[in-house]
């Protein structure tokens, strides 16, 4: 049995399910532990990529923001109250205008991270503060593993009401 970091999480999950089906509980327990450890590691990597994005955003550095973003035709950004900006070059150009407008302080709340083989996303609420005032933005940040590094491939931010009701779902 291979527990290498090169084995995709989906393949480890399939091996775990097969071990349970075969009632090989020792093998299943070992696979469960490897899966938990790997999922935690991938989740942390996506969370760190998200932190790099917000550090670049707050620093006002276009170079740092450019480093955060990935490449590919699927790279997109939707800034609050704007349309979709598509393609890496256009996305970086859009950040040039935003970062040039002054420093922004951002605090995150309700951060939720999901990560799997090669992709992950973060949802959160950005509490922003600048010389022009305060804001509250609901954001989704999508990351992709590119060349061994987690890169942002999509950011969507939109205004949210001050008091956002929490939707509770059970039994779904």
TrEMBL record:
Record-linked Pfam families: SnoaL_3, UVR
Domain of life: Eukaryota
Domain UVR: 6-41
InterPro entries noted in UniProt: NTF2-like_dom_sf, SnoaL-like, UVR_dom, UVR_dom_sf
PROSITE patterns associated with the record: UVR
Name the record gives this protein: F-box SKIP8
Organism for this UniProt entry: Micractinium conductrix
